[in-house]
Specification:
This protein has no helices and 26 strands. By secondary structure, the protein is mostly beta strands.
């Protein structure tokens, strides 16, 4: 399956394209909307697919819609509007789990689940900020962008949201009950930092690997540095730091592959 995005805004459409990967042949194309960007897709099972799409008017994004597609019949079975900006996506049993920010600003995070029928449930994560604030021109001066994105992962029947500092939020996906767990003292960011971005990955034995970047500006130039990797034990909520400077992590056959950005290139470590 491939996502096709209409970027020209002159004819065409944003669609999902199903491909036979063995024969490299297009099977069918399912149109979604005239213009927009496919932000994420996830298979819920062998038949049902969800796509998160930002609807656009060719000038700016307007809103977010979650499309449920029946792969057997090659048709859209539901369209679910969603308030806010999707900044994190994970797959749970029978549903897509989304970390949602207020649109174009930083505010209280929400966790949203959407199933194959388009049924949407939502819970606010009080005390966790999230969002992306783009630069604005005020009085002839451009403001700096600001990013605040926690990591999201699903472990069994619960979603875990790990902010750059402060307690972790754990959401029971059956009841949407939220519990908080303190795992560390608050981390102070550098004075020029304009925001952190975190990702989270569930590993074996209840471990969660958290990594990402810290963004900032210095002497008028943008900069970022890897946050390193923190291994969080979801049973005890203790953690330890490994791989200083790493900015991404992928589990592979019992080891963790990380990337560390050097001055001119990235390198792979394990």
């Amino acid at each position: 399956m491939l996502g096709y995005v209409n970027e020209s805004c002159v004819g065409g459409e944003t669609a999902l394209r199903f491909v036979d990967t063995a024969r490299l042949r297009t099977l069918d194309t399912v149109p979604l909307l005239p213009n927009g960007t496919i932000e994420a897709t996830r298979w819920l099972d062998r038949r049902h697919l969800l796509a998160v799409v930002e609807r656009s008017d060719c000038i700016s994004d307007k809103d977010t819609v979650v499309y449920a597609v029946d792969a057997a019949s090659q048709r859209v079975v539901s369209r679910t509007p969603l308030r806010g900006d999707v900044v994190g996506v994970a797959r749970a049993r029978g549903a897509l789990v989304l970390l949602v920010a207020p649109r174009n600003r930083i505010g209280t995070a929400s966790l949203v689940t959407v199933d194959a029928t388009g049924n949407l449930r939502r819970v606010a994560l009080r005390g966790i900020s999230v969002g992306i604030r783009r630069p604005r021109v005020i009085g002839g001066t451009s403001t700096l962008p600001r990013t605040d994105v926690p990591g999201l992962t699903v472990s069994g029947d619960r979603a875990v949201v790990v902010p750059p500092e402060g307690p972790v939020a754990v959401v029971d996906l059956a009841t949407l009950r939220v519990t908080r767990h303190a795992i560390r003292a608050a981390r102070s960011l550098s004075k020029e930092a304009t925001g952190p971005f975190r990702t989270a990955v569930t590993l074996a034995d209840g471990l969660i690997a958290v990594t990402g970047w810290n963004f900032g500006f210095s002497n008028g130039r943008s900069r970022w540095n890897g946050a390193g990797v923190e291994l969080v034990d979801s049973h005890t909520w203790r953690f330890r730091r490994i791989a200083p400077g790493a900015e991404s992590v992928v589990p592979a056959g019992g080891i963790l592959l990380t990337t560390v950005r050097a001055a001119t290139r990235s390198r792979l470590t394990r």
